[in-house]
Design a protein that fits this description.
By secondary structure, this protein is an alpha+beta fold. Helices cover 18% and strands 34% of the residues. A five-stranded mixed sheet has the order 1-3-8-9-10, with no helix packed on it. The protein has a five-stranded mixed sheet with strand order 2-5-4-6-7, with helices on one face.
Length: 157
């Protein structure tokens, strides 16, 4: 019997098939999954902010410190760094603003992309931006990410 592992805001979890992993209510936050085609183990992080200012002990709240530590944790579970791929969702602009500093979703998207590029991890699929929240579920056995947006159809990336 399989379970669905829930990843809360600013959290990171590891999942191995047949279990699935999910995070809910991604507004400006990013739900990022790192996985390998050679493993049935994956990790998911619910990123809230782009960069760790250094004094916050919750490393998984931020794209920079969260992604680095996510890679390290997956390596400890036997997932080879060189084979990692990514899928990401979220980064919505939940409130209209002309102040780019307040556009956290846009900043989160860029920070995640920058950090994945730094570690040479390819983004296989993404569903980012817009103005609606998302709930995502990843199945490490199929490598499918199911995306649910309130009031819209559910789809797979």
């Amino acid at each position: 019997m399989s379970e669905t592992i829930n990843v809360g805001i600013s959290e990171f979890r590891i999942c191995t098939a047949p279990d699935k992993i999910m995070t809910v209510a991604l507004g400006s936050c990013i739900g990022l999954v790192l996985y390998s085609y050679f493993s049935n183990t994956c990790g998911m992080i619910h990123i809230m902010m782009p960069n760790n200012p250094g004094e916050d002990k919750n490393i998984f709240k931020y794209a920079d410190s969260g992604i680095k530590n996510m890679i390290d944790e997956l390596s400890k579970h036997g997932v080879r760094r060189a084979t990692l791929k990514a899928k990401m969702c979220g980064g919505a602009r939940m409130f209209e603003t002309t102040n780019d500093r307040m556009a956290i979703g846009d900043r989160n998207i860029e920070a995640v992309k920058k950090n994945l590029e730094k570690y040479r991890i390819e983004i296989i699929a993404s569903d980012v931006g817009g103005s609606k929240s998302r709930t995502v579920t990843f199945d490490p056995s199929t490598k499918d990410m199911t995306v649910k947006i309130p009031g819209m159809n559910t789809y797979i990336i």
